[in-house]
Specification:
This protein is α+β, with helices and mostly antiparallel strands. The chain has helices spanning 26-30, 53-65, and strands at residues 13-19, 34-38, 44-50, 70-76. The chain contains two helices and four strands. Strands 2-3-1-4 form a four-stranded antiparallel sheet, covered by helices on one side. Strand 2 and strand 3 form a beta hairpin. Residues 1-7 have low confidence and may be disordered.
């Protein structure tokens, strides 16, 4: 079974990714649209958006290429009542 995400053209893809390490602030500086939270268990949660799927895949490849283990990837659906 294939799951397809519906997305209007131009809407950014909002996501949350957890990796098994504390990332340094260079990640926020390098990719300005991200917020990074260090978790008590030693992992880092990255929250942000990308304009399209190819940009998101590129970022995941950056994580993988840096040797980081991805623990969680979650797409955040925009609330239908959210007009912002």
């Amino acid at each position: 079974m294939t799951t397809r995400f519906s997305k209007k053209k131009g809407d950014p893809m909002v996501f949350s990714i957890r990796v098994q390490a504390h990332l340094n602030s260079n990640w926020e500086t390098r990719f300005g649209n991200l917020s990074i939270t260090h978790e008590d268990d030693g992992s880092t949660t990255i929250h942000g958006s990308f304009p399209d799927q190819s940009a998101m895949v590129w970022f995941i490849n950056q994580l993988h290429g840096s040797g980081l283990k991805i623990l969680l990837f979650k797409r955040i659906e925009k609330d239908a009542n959210d007009v912002s």
